[in-house]
Amino acid sequence: MKKIICLFFLFGLTPQALSCDEECRKQLAEAKYSVDFPGYLTRKYCNDIAGEFMTTSMKSLQSYRFKHLESKHRGGMRNTGRFIEQRKEWLAECDQYLKYTDYGRLFKDAETTDRIFAAMTSVSVELASLVEGATYTDEAGDASTQVAAEKFDLLFKLVDNHKTLLQIRGQFVTRH
Predict the structure, then answer these.
(1) Rounded distance, CA 22 to CA 20, Å?
(2) What gap in Å lies between CA 102 and CA 11, rounded to an integer?
(3) Could you state, in order of their start, the residue ranges of all structural domains in the chain?
(4) Are 20 and 32 in contact, with CB atoms under 8 Å apart?
């Protein structure tokens, strides 16, 4: 009887002993892909960064797009472009971490993640072009910021669609 109890006890511990927690996944990924992840990178950190981007950063970018883009102030364009690039670097670092540790992609799948990153690049490149003096005109006259505004709108739409999908699944809650 004691042997049977011991066997049940051992079988009960086996899955826990063989499971791989986040630190284990991190070490396996570092060895497999020859990368060295910073200590602060965790699944929770990456989820927090993505959540911050979809809320606070988007609100800031929308404010810039609707209130200040038309002013064509180069300093604001430069700062906003850098802001987007910085956020993209943080998000890309997290995306790589999540992908390598087999937690999936930052924005749930490769297509959505790649499209959001491409839209971020598109906006920051457009802002850099405007800072350098690129101009666009249409029949009505000067429309230099119209292309940038359209690129901002695409980024907003992609992020909003992703956020809505997460909310429908109950995976994202915003508090006001």
Answers:
(1) 7
(2) 26
(3) 21-168
(4) no
Residue 138 is encoded by which pair of tokens? 């249409």
* Token code pair at residue 31: 């060895």
Give the amino acid at 71. S
**For residues 45 and 72, what is the distance between their CA atoms, to the nearest angstrom?**
35
Q: Are 131 and 74 in contact (CB under 8 A)?
A: yes
Task: Output the tens digit of pLDDT for each of the chain's 176 residues.
Answer: 555 554 454 445 444 445 899 999 999 999 999 999 999 999 999 999 999 999 999 999 999 999 999 998 999 999 999 999 999 999 999 999 999 999 999 998 999 999 999 999 999 999 999 999 887 766 665 677 999 999 999 999 999 999 999 888 887 666 54
- What is the rounded distance in angstroms from the CA atom of residue 99 to the CA atom of residue 128? 30
3-state helix, strand, coil in the chain (%, to 5): 75, 0, 25
- Sign of the torsion formed by the C-alpha atoms of 105, 111, 115 and 118: positive
3-state secondary structure of 174: coil
Residue 95: CB atoms within 10 A of its CB come to: 23
Which residues, 6+ apart, have CB-to-CB distance to 18 below 8 Å? none
Specify the 3-state DSSP secondary structure of 138: strand
Contact predicate 58/172, CB 8 Å = no
